[in-house]
Design a protein that fits this description.
Elements (H helix, E strand, L loop, with lengths): L2 E5 L3 E5 L3 H14 L17 E3 L8 H19 L15 E3 L5
Antiparallel strand pairs: 1-2, 3-4
């Protein structure tokens, strides 16, 4: 997994996701888009389309990559003594910001 770590008061990491995982996410989103509930009222920002994807994310290729990245981030925090908690990760909420070109 390719990553880059920067320490600027907070630990910031950037991960590159495989294009096939992003394509799979987009395909699954398009398959379910019409049945997804709006997350807008529960979120701070206001975009035209913020659709809940929580129940579908586990069925995507990108979900494993996201968990791998989160585990790597926790390991980085442990190495610099900024975290000593659990590694039990669970996606509690997930939504798609559906933005249009322009």
């Amino acid at each position: 997994m390719k990553s880059q770590t920067n320490l600027f008061g907070r630990v910031v990491k950037r991960y590159d996701m495989p294009l096939e995982a992003i394509d799979d996410l987009n395909i699954k989103y398009e398959e379910h888009r019409k049945e997804l509930a709006s997350m807008g009222p529960r979120l701070a920002g206001r975009l035209e389309s913020e659709l809940e994807f929580t129940h579908h994310i586990s069925k995507t290729i990108i979900a494993k990559h996201m968990v791998d990245c989160m585990n790597d981030y926790i390991e980085t925090l442990e190495k610099v003594n900024l975290y000593k908690g659990t590694k039990e990760l669970e996606i509690l909420s997930c939504w798609i910001n559906d933005m249009k070109e322009g």
